[in-house]
Write a structure and sequence with these properties.
- The protein is α/β, with parallel strands linked by helices and 295 residues long.
- The chain has two domains: 161 residues, NAD(P)-binding Rossmann-like Domain (Rossmann fold, 3-Layer(aba) Sandwich); 117 residues, N-(1-d-carboxylethyl)-l-norvaline Dehydrogenase, domain 2.
- 52% of the residues lie in helices and 14% in strands.
- The protein contains 13 helices and nine strands.
- The chain has a six-stranded parallel beta sheet with strand order 3-2-1-4-5-6, sandwiched between helices.
- Helix 8 links the parallel strand 8 and strand 9.
- It is globular and about 60 Å long.
- It starts with a strand and ends in a 21-residue tail after the last helix.
């Protein structure tokens, strides 16, 4: 049976998710406020909707790929939103990265309208979505998380039920702490290698399989070396997630001094106008008067 899926939000991440879903035989209906973003997926076989309600009305599953709780709320409960068109029992799968408490509130409001909710934020970015190898951390009722996998198996190779609604978002914040610190550590080590005259391009292979090895080391040190700043993510999105982790840490009274430093560096780069750049632009933090830098 073909899955009937609505995708709300067709930006860089949503577009990659939509591309993969269309390529793997799902009946995809897409809505994004930007007609150009909708058109990209229509060219790949998706049906176009002119509102989230219209997309939800012809779908059994609704995937959200958005950027903030307020945007998610508007897309679901605002005028022309998902709730206005979805039939009872529709499963909303929120792949956005938002606050766990906001997620719980949204899910509770959806339940009052007869809609089910799974939070399933992701790790791996657009490149992994396109090849079906995302890592997903899901929160929700066990039966809903299992049902969501009917669709999400097309985009993910690692799918874990973390607990009730909000648990997926909490796990994503932990993921972002590890990623944020990892990106910064690799950038710092890259600059040290360059300044010390070591061929930094050889380091990923030299350390492969050792304790210092990681996916970030293998993917990003070569990019840091060459100042390859092509966009696969955004520094200001990391700021949002690190802010969320710090908010959670305050609520749980958890000391996170390294995360605080990492967040400040990301905020500094955003203030300098680099918020829209990829994590590779972290190298700009280490530029000096004798170092070439981004322009």
């Amino acid at each position: 049976m073909t899955n009937r899926v609505a995708l709300i939000g067709a930006g860089a991440m949503g577009g990659a998710i939509g591309t993969r879903l269309a390529e793997t035989g799902n009946h995809l209906t897409v809505f994004d406020p930007d007609p150009a973003k909708r058109a990209v997926l229509v060219e790949k076989g998706a049906q176009e909707a002119t509102s989230a309600a219209e997309a939800a009305a012809v779908s059994d599953y609704v995937i959200l790929s958005l950027n903030a709780p307020a945007i998610v709320r508007k897309a679901v409960f605002g005028e022309g939103g998902v709730a206005a068109g979805a039939k009872a029992g529709t499963l909303i799968i929120d792949m956005s990265s938002i606050d766990p408490d906001a997620t719980k509130d949204l899910a509770a409001e959806a339940a009052e309208k007869g809609l089910r909710w799974v939070d399933s934020p992701l790790s791996g970015g657009a490149p992994k979505a396109l090849i079906g190898q995302l890592t997903l951390m899901a929160g929700g009722a066990a039966e809903d998380v299992a049902d969501a996998h009917t669709v999400l198996r097309h985009v993910a190779s690692n799918y874990t039920h973390m607990g009730p609604v909000g648990a997926g978002q909490t796990t994503k914040l932990i993921n972002q702490v590890l990623c944020g610190l990892g990106f910064l550590a690799v950038a710092e080590a890259t600059q040290l290698a360059l300044d010390a005259g070591v061929d930094a391009a050889k380091i990923p292979q030299a350390l492969k399989g050792g304790r210092a090895d990681s996916a970030i080391l293998q993917e990003y040190m070569p990019r840091f070396v060459t100042k390859d700043y092509r966009r696969t993510g955004r520094i200001d999105n990391m700021v949002k997630d690190l802010n969320g982790a710090q908010d959670l840490a305050r609520r749980t009274n958890t000391a996170m001094p390294l995360t605080a430093a990492c967040a400040e560096i990301h905020r500094m780069l955003t203030a300098a106008g680099l918020g829209g750049e990829d994590q590779a632009a972290l190298m700009e933090f280490f530029r000096g008067p004798n170092k070439e830098h981004f322009s």
